[in-house]
Amino acid sequence: MEFSFSSKYPFTSEAKQKVEGSSLELNDEIMERAVQRVVAALQGKVWKPVYLHPSDDLIDLGSYAAARMMLAHLRNRFLTNKFAVAEAKRAYKLMCEDSEENLGKLGRELGITPQEFEGKLALPVYQYASFSPRSVDYRLIFRNVKGGFVEVTRHEVIRLMEEAVKGRMESYKPLQNPPQIIRDYSKKLMVLVPKEAVLKMSFREGDNPPCIEKLLEGAKEHQNLNHQARLVLAIYLLARNVPVEKVQAIFSNLPDYEEKKTKYQLDHMIRRGYSMASCATLLSYGLCVADCRIGTPLRWKGKVEPWKKGNGSSS
Question: Which residue stretches of 171-315 are H helix?
Answer without folding.
Answer: 180-190, 210-220, 227-239, 244-251, 259-272, 279-285
